[in-house]
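User: tokens in, sequence out, please.
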């Protein structure tokens, strides 16, 4: 058996030497399908910013009330909940790849309905379908990207979620500015067609295959994505050995008892609490409010000195450039450093913008300088896009142990959905009652509170394997080293029969 394995290993090694496509490019292909979906998600979030402005025109084919407008922008949050409820089961039973494929279908149907909509009810249904697909993908995206990626590339790939959001928002606002809203919807909806094609070209993730006992397929997928080198082979063996041990132990425990034991384990509840704070921080920073209500918000910030659509595109440009920078920064610097730098910049900028707006209202700023609040507002966009936008998604893909990854992502995603709905639904009322200046003060205070909790709760995950992060929450420091030094041989015997 030993000689046979060495022969197979030698043959595999020769095969991979002949492959012309590098592991990085293979990982990039696998990640790109999810990235295209998230570009569509960014377009979903930002589209009301141009849709509602066009529908407010006197010659609009559709007439909306202020209540309709707030529901069209916020119903994504409620729909996200329904998608996130289904996501854990789908991720666990159907796998990452098929879940990603299926999530494109309701989104495509939503955009098709929106293109043909002739009354507010159809608009709401179309937005609900888009949000339902977004909910499934909100749980699936960070998990899929993290499981496709090598540790050295994982930060950059997970940061592409932030890049995707910003790109989608820019796409929606540019097309919505240049085109009629139905034509703009065609352009935005096409992202999901491209996403479906790219996802279909990628394999299932190795960790998911290992949870199902498909160890041969796991090895094949892992080596397709990562090639063959000492570090990747060690990581593969740790993944397989750890999962074989869990499969054997789980056979002795009933499902209900296993679920009850799960919620009491620190490697489950600690990451879940961290991600709750992460997603509350994400939404309370105005991450989804700003693109949904950019035009009226910037009209108040600039004091009418800039054309509304021009100021909207300036915000989109700053967000897009910063998101590109974030892909580099997140991969180079520690996660905590990037997050708390972004939090600090955002809080200072929000409070300073509010101060300038109050001073302008009381007449302390001359008319020729009415535009000055625009500067700290753009710095705020920079800060939240650099740190608050990418890091929660990067952490979401890394922090949950493999056994609880689907369930943990679903539970924490519920907070994302609820906060999405609450923040976006209440934003128009908040802008009317206390203005942008008061709303920014609330956002700044909320970011400060969440940041304080995360400062004490969040560990550093950069350049660690997913298994090392799991060991951190378990409180195990030497298990990985012990496995690499020889204990894996004892555990490996458990899977010999499965691998043939």
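Assistant: Sequence out:
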């Amino acid at each position: 058996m030993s000689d046979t394995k060495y022969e197979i290993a030698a043959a595999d090694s020769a095969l991979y030497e002949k492959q012309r496509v590098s592991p990085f490019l293979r990982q990039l292909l696998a990640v790109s399908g999810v990235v295209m979906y998230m570009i569509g998600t960014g377009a979903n979030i930002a589209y009301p910013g141009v849709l509602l402005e066009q529908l407010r025109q006197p010659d609009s084919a559709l007439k909306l009330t202020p209540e309709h407008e707030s529901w069209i922008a916020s119903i994504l949050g409620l729909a996200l909940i329904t998608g996130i409820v289904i996501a854990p089961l789908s991720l666990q039973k159907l796998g990452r790849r098929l879940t990603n494929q299926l999530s494109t279908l309701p989104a495509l149907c939503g955009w098709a309905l929106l293109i043909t909509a002739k009354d507010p009810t159809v608009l709401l249904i179309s937005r609900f379908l888009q949000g339902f697909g977004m909910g499934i993908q909100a749980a699936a995206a960070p998990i899929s990207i993290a499981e496709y990626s090598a540790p050295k590339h994982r930060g950059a790939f997970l940061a592409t979620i932030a890049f995707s959001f910003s790109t989608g928002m820019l796409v929606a606002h540019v097309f919505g500015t240049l085109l009629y809203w139905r034509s703009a919807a065609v352009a935005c909806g096409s992202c999901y067609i491209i996403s479906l094609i790219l996802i279909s070209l990628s394999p299932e993730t190795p960790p998911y295959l290992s949870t199902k006992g498909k160890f041969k397929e796991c090895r094949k997928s892992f080596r397709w994505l990562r090639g063959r080198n000492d570090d990747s082979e060690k990581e593969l063996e740790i993944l397989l050995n750890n999962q074989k041990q869990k499969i054997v132990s789980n056979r002795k425990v009933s499902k209900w008892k296993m679920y009850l034991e799960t919620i009491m384990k620190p490697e489950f509840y600690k990451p879940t609490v961290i991600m709750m704070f992460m997603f509350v921080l994400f939404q309370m920073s105005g991450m989804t409010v700003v693109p949904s209500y950019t035009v009226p918000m910037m009209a108040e910030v600039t004091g009418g000195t800039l054309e509304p659509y021009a100021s909207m595109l300036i915000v989109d440009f700053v967000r897009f450039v910063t998101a590109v920078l974030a892909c580099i920064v997140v991969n180079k610097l520690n996660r905590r450093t990037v997050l708390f730098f972004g939090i600090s910049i955002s809080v200072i900028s929000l409070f300073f913008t509010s101060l300038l707006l109050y001073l302008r209202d009381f007449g302390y700023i001359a008319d020729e300088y009415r535009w000055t609040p625009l500067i700290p507002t753009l710095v705020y966009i920079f800060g939240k896009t650099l740190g608050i936008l990418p890091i929660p998604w990067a952490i979401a893909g890394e922090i949950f142990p493999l056994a609880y990854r689907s369930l943990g992502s679903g539970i924490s995603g519920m907070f994302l959905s609820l906060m999405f709905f609450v923040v976006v639904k209440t934003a128009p009322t908040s802008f009317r009652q206390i203005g942008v200046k008061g709303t920014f003060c609330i956002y700044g205070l909320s970011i400060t509170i969440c940041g304080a909790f995360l400062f004490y709760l969040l560990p550093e995950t950069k350049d660690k394997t997913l298994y090392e992060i799991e060991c951190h929450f378990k409180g195990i420091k030497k298990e990985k080293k012990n496995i690499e030094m020889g204990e894996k041989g004892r555990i490996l015997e458990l899977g010999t029969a499965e691998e043939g």
